[in-house]
Write a structure and sequence with these properties.
mainly beta, four-stranded antiparallel sheet, 12 strands, Ribosomal_uL3, RNA-binding, Ribosomal_uL3_CS, ribonucleoprotein, rRNA binding
Amino acid sequence: MSGLIGKKIGMTSIFDENGKNVPCTVIEAGPCVVTQVRTKEVDGYEALQVGFDDKKTANKASEGHAKKAGSVAKRKVVEFKGFEADYKLGDAITVEHFNEGEFVDIAGTSKGKGFQGVVKRHNFGGVGQATHGQHNRLRAPGSIGAASYPARVFKGMKMAGRMGGERVKVENLRVLKVVADKNLLVVKGCVPGHKNSYVIISK
């Protein structure tokens, strides 16, 4: 799995070759710096550690780690296993790592929604207003279990609670455009996270 770290810029839409209006997400992808090369002899596995987005202030440990790669400390650092090409410490990986028309997986942290009920959180249908004389329980979850046996609520019961703020991965998004001079990647569809949030793009 080879890829890049990016930052979600926002959504827009473009017209494809058939004149169809396609919704898409614009991502600032890279340039990422190789901050460490993991090897089997030293680390027990092979991987590339890449960093993205310079830190304004960093502790000495982060600065020293980045200095080995001839770079400054990075705000986001991610490891990728099984990189296609051979990269050395300090090499820069740009958005040209991707090609138009290929498919990518994008992972990020979803928007936090706070405490939500079962209708929004788990897509419960709610109840119609005309049944069984009920009048004020439109979005209630209903029964959550039996009575004296088993006398408890089973684990995993879908109930109200905090929603969002979780790692979400969207698979098979088509790359519509690669703008190399501005480090921009345009992918079809939506991507998890708010504007300016970090995303991990992998082939």
